[in-house]
Specification:
The complex is a heterodimer.
Chain A: E1 21-26, E2 29-34, E3 39-45, E4 47-52, E5 55-60, E6 63-68, E7 73-79, E8 81-82, E9 90-94, E10 97-101, E11 107-111, E12 116-117, H1 121-127, E13 131-135, E14 138-142, E15 148-154, E16 156-157, E17 165-168, E18 174-177, E19 183-186, E20 191-193, E21 200-205, E22 211-215, E23 220-226, E24 236-242, E25 245-250, E26 255-261, E27 263-264, E28 272-276, E29 279-283, E30 289-294, E31 298-299, H2 301-305, E32 310-315, E33 318-323, E34 329-332
Antiparallel strand pairs in A: 1-2, 2-3, 4-5, 5-6, 6-7, 8-9, 9-10, 10-11, 12-13, 13-14, 14-15, 16-17, 17-18, 18-19, 20-21, 21-22, 22-23, 24-25, 25-26, 27-28, 28-29, 29-30, 31-32, 32-33, 33-34
Chain B: H1 3-14, H2 20-30, H3 43-61, E1 70-74, E2 80-85, E3 88-94, H4 100-109, E4 113-114, E5 121-127, E6 130-138, E7 141-150, E8 153-157, H5 159-176, H6 181-184, H7 202-209
Helix pairs in contact in B: 1-2, 1-3
Classes of the chains: A mainly beta, B alpha+beta.
Chain lengths: ~325, ~210
C-alpha cells in the first residue's frame, strides 16, 4: 500500500506557501519529488513531513529530526514529535515534554503545562492562529510561543480560523470565541456550527437539519435552506441540491454549478474533483471539465486537499500522481 | 455513502472543523435522509462508526500532525479495508457480527497487522434519542451498538430498527416544523443575503428567524 501525506490542507485553510517538494513513499521508505515528478530526495526515511521554511521533519527509526531541501540532516532525530517551522521556531516533543527549537536544533524554550496538542500545528500555522490543546476531557489553546492563552475549559472545541473558534460549554451550547477567549457569537441551543473559512461558517439547525452561513460578526448571510454545505474554498462550496446530487454555490448563496454530481469536492487551485457514477474528473469554476472523467479505484483525499498540483490515485492497479488541471500522470510509484 | 465524501467528512472531523453534533446529521443527509424515501441503506451507521473510530485512531497516532487514517482502502482482491493506519488495520462491525473472516483475508493478502485496541466512544449522539457507542473490542476489531434512550429506558436497536427510527423521526420533525417534506425535496432555493445591519447580533437574528 502506498500512502501519501501532504501537510497543508489548502481547502480547509488556504496558505500562501509554495510547495516545492512533495513527500512520497516507496517500498516503505519516504523521499521527496518536485512538481515535475523528479525525485529530489531519495526514499531513505521511515516517515516524512512537508517542508516549511526550508526544513522538513523526517523520522529515522523512532525519532524525528529535520532535513533541508538538499536532503542533509540539520536537526538530529531525537524527538517523538516535531511540528513545522513557523517564524524560525518549531514545537517539538520528547519524553520530557514540549519544547521550542530554532532551525539549528537549539532548544530555546521549555513549554510548561500538562496537556497534549490536539490539532495539527500546520493547520494553526497556516493562519497564524492559536493551537488547540487537550487536558483531560477539556480543551483550550496555546500560541506559537508555547504559552497557554485560553486554559482548557471547554467540553468540545474546534480549531481557530478567521480569528474565531467554535466551542461548546458545560451548558451544552455552542458559541464562537476570539483569540482572547472572549465569546463573540452566541448560538441558540439548537444551532451547531462548523469552523469558519473565507469569513463564513456553516451553522446547522438541528430541528430542520438545514444549514445557513454566518459571517464573522455573526450575521446570517445565507438563510437556512442548504443541505450539507461544505466549507467555502476559493469562493464556492458544495451543497446537496436535489435527489442527492451535488452542486456548488457562491458566497451569495447562488447556485453557480448545477447539481449534477454524485460526489463533489472543494475547489483547490482552481479545479474540483467531481464524480458521476464510478467516474471522476476535474472541473473548473464554470463547471467545465478540464480533466476527463475516468475510473479511479481510489483517490487519496489527503493529497487532494494539499495545495500541490499532484493528486494521488489508484488506477488499473497502479498508484500514481495526476495533475489536477489536466488529469495527466505526473509520477508513477 | 460515496467513498470520497466519507473520507472528506472524516478528514474535516479529525481536524476539528466539524462538531460532534454535526457529524451524524451530515452523514445521515449524505445517505439520503432528506429524500422522499429516506435512508435506504443501513450502512449509514457503519459510515458513522467508521468516522468516529478513525478519529480515535487519528488522536492516538497522528499526534498533532496532518496525517489521516485511510478509509475504504482497496485491495487487489476487490476487498476494502475499513480503516488503515500505516500497517495497522481495523474492521468495523455492529456488535454480534464477526470481523474475523475479513481480517484474516486482509492479513493474508497484505503485510498488515490487526490494529491496536483504543479508547471507546460511548453514547455518541446521532439523532433524536438515538445514540451510538463504539468499542475497540479486540485487535483490529471495532464494534458499534445503537441505543435508543427514551422515557428513562435504554433499548438496543438493530441497524434496521435504527434506520426506521431515524426516518420516522425526521418525517415527524419535518411535519412539526411545518415543512412539507415533498416540497423541500427538489425545491432548492437559496435565500439571498440578509440585509446587513451594522452591529446586528446573531442571537437576535436567530430568534427572529427561528421563532418557529
Amino acid at each position: 500500500m502506498k500512502t501519501v501525506r501532504e501537510n497543508y490542507l489548502k481547502s480547509i485553510y488556504p496558505i500562501g506557501l509554495k510547495r516545492t517538494l512533495i513527500p512520497f513513499e516507496q517500498d516503505g521508505k519516504w523521499g521527496y519529488f518536485d512538481q515535475e515528478g523528479n525525485v529530489k530526495i531519495h526514499p531513505l526515511y521511515d516517515d516524512a513531513d512537508a517542508f516549511s521554511e526550508g526544513l522538513a521533519g523526517v523520522r529515522i527509526s523512532d525519532f524525528w529530526g529535520f532535513i533541508n531541501e538538499e536532503g542533509s540532516i540539520v536537526v538530529t532525530p531525537e524527538y517523538h514529535f516535531v511540528g513545522p517551522f513557523v517564524k524560525g521556531q518549531s514545537i517539538v516533543k520528547n519524553s520530557k515534554g514540549y519544547f521550542l527549537i530554532d532551525q539549528s536544533g537549539v532548544q530555546i524554550k521549555t513549554i510548561a503545562g500538562d496537556f497534549e496538542i490536539d490539532e495539527p500545528i500546520e493547520q494553526a500555522a497556516s493562519h497564524e492562529e492559536l493551537i488547540k490543546i487537550q487536558h483531560g476531557e477539556r480543551f483550550g489553546y496555546i500560541n506559537f510561543s508555547g504559552d497557554i492563552v485560553i486554559s482548557p475549559q471547554y467540553v468540545e472545541s474546534g480549531t481557530f480560523s478567521n480569528g474565531l473558534a467554535w466551542v461548546k460549554t458545560d451548558q451544552d451550547r455552542y458559541s464562537f470565541i476570539d483569540s482572547s477567549g472572549t465569546t463573540t457569537i452566541e448560538l441558540p441551543g439548537h444551532m451547531i456550527p462548523d469552523s469558519f473559512s473565507e469569513g463564513m461558517a456553516a451553522v446547522r439547525d438541528i430541528h430542520s437539519l438545514k444549514s445557513g452561513f454566518i459571517d464573522t460578526s455573526g450575521q446570517l448571510i445565507i438563510a437556512f435552506s442548504l443541505s450539507n454545505p461544505d466549507s467555502f474554498s476559493e469562493g464556492l462550496t458544495t451543497v446537496i441540491v436535489n435527489k442527492g446530487k451535488m452542486g456548488y454555490i457562491d458566497s451569495q448563496g447562488h447556485l453557480v454549478i448545477e447539481g449534477a454530481y454524485d460526489e463533489a469536492l472543494p475547489f483547490i487551485n482552481g479545479t474540483a474533483l467531481v464524480s458521476i457514477d464510478d467516474k471522476s474528473g476535474f472541473i473548473d469554476k464554470k463547471g467545465d471539465l478540464v480533466a476527463p472523467m475516468q475510473q479511479y479505484d481510489y483517490v487519496d483525499i489527503q493529497s487532494y486537499y494539499s495545495d500541490s498540483s499532484a493528486v494521488l490515485v489508484l488506477q488499473d492497479g497502479k498508484y500514481k500522481y495526476i495533475n489536477r488541471h489536466s488529469g495527466k500522470t505526473i509520477f508513477e510509484i | 455513502m460515496q467513498v470520497k465524501a466519507l473520507q472528506s467528512i472524516s478528514t474535516r472531523y479529525n481536524l476539528g472543523r466539524i462538531a460532534n453534533g454535526n457529524l451524524a446529521p451530515m452523514v445521515l443527509i449524505a445517505n439520503g435522509l432528506e429524500s422522499s424515501k429516506g435512508i435506504q441503506n443501513v450502512t449509514v451507521f457503519h459510515d458513522i462508526a467508521q468516522i468516529i473510530a478513525a478519529k480515535q485512531v487519528y488522536k492516538a497516532f497522528a499526534g498533532g500532525r496532518v496525517l489521516m487514517p485511510a478509509l475504504e482502502v482497496p485491495l487487489k482482491s476487490g476487498r476494502e479495508i475499513d480503516i488503515m493506519w500505516k500497517d495497522q488495520i481495523w474492521e468495523v462491525k455492529p456488535f454480534g457480527t464477526s470481523a474475523e473472516e475479513q481480517l484474516k483475508a486482509y492479513t493474508e493478502e497484505g503485510n498488515y497487522t490487526r490494529g491496536k485496541e483504543l479508547n471507546p466512544v460511548k453514547d455518541f449522539h446521532l439523532y433524536g434519542n438515538l445514540f451510538m457507542s463504539v468499542y475497540f473490542t479486540s485487535p483490529g476489531v471495532v464494534n458499534y451498538s445503537l441505543n435508543l434512550k427514551q422515557d428513562g429506558k435504554t433499548t438496543n436497536l438493530s441497524v434496521i430498527e435504527a434506520r426506521s427510527y431515524v426516518n420516522n423521526e425526521y418525517a415527524e420533525r419535518s411535519r412539526n416544523a411545518g415543512l412539507a417534506q415533498a416540497g423541500v425535496i427538489g425545491a432548492f432555493s437559496v435565500a439571498g443575503r440578509v440585509a446587513q445591519g451594522a452591529g446586528a447580533v446573531v442571537r437576535a437574528l436567530f430568534k427572529e428567524a427561528f421563532s418557529w
